[in-house]
Amino acid sequence: MQLQDILFSQGFGTRRICCGLVQQGFVAVGEAKEACTDPLALLPTEDLVFWVQGVRWVYQERAYLMLHKPSGFECSQKPGTYPSVYTLLPGPLRQRGGSAAAGVQAVGRLDQDTTGLLLLSDDGKFIHRMTSPRHHVPKVYEAQVKHPLDDRMTTRLLEGVVLDDDPKPVRAQACTAVSEHLLRMTLTEGKYHQVKRMIAAVGNRVEALHRSAIGPLALSDSLPEGQWRWLTRNEIETLTQKVR
Fold it and tell me: Does the pLDDT value for residue 145 go beyond 70?
C-alpha cells in the first residue's frame, strides 16, 4: 500500500494532508525510524510500525479498543451537558476511514455517571455482533446501592422484575451481594438504564455503577480511568468466537 494511503486509512487526514506529512519529513517507517519522504512508497502493512511527528503507530486494518471510561463523559459524538468520551482518544482514532461516519464507534453505551469497560471499533460487523440482542453477550456490573442488600432483592433480580416500558420480566443472569452495599450483576440484555431500573424495582437505588467485563473480557486494574489500549488478536478472537 502507498504510504500516503496508509496514513489516510489510519486517520491522519485527507490524502492531500497525508501526502504533505510525508513530503515534509514528518513520517518515518519501522522501529529504526527510517525517514521516508516519498508519499507513493509501497510498504507491506503486516506488522507495520511507523512514526508520525515522533509518535509511534502500528498499522491496524480495523480498530478494536478498550477504554476505561471515567464518570462525567457521554458516549455520544454530539454530547449535551458533558464532554464526549471520544475526546479521550487521539485524533487519528476519531478520523479513521475518512467518510462521513469516520472513526471508531462505541460498542453500546454507558451513562455519563457510569464507569468501566467500553469497547470501541470501526468494524461494523463486530459492533453488530457484540450489541445484537440475539447474541446475549453477558456484561458484568458492580453497583453501589443506597440501602442494605438482602436475599429477597437478589432472588427477585434472578427471577425477573417488570420494568415500566415492557410487561415481560427481565432477569439477571447472575447476581451476588459482594457486601452489604455492593451488588455484582450480570446481564445479557441492553435496555435503557437497565441496571438502575432493575435495582429500583426491588426497592433500592444505585449510587454508583461500574462495568467490569464484557463477555470473556475483563477490565484490568492496569488500565487507569480515561486511558485506552488496543485489544490483542487473542482478545478479539475470543470475543467474536463467544457470540457466533
Answer: yes
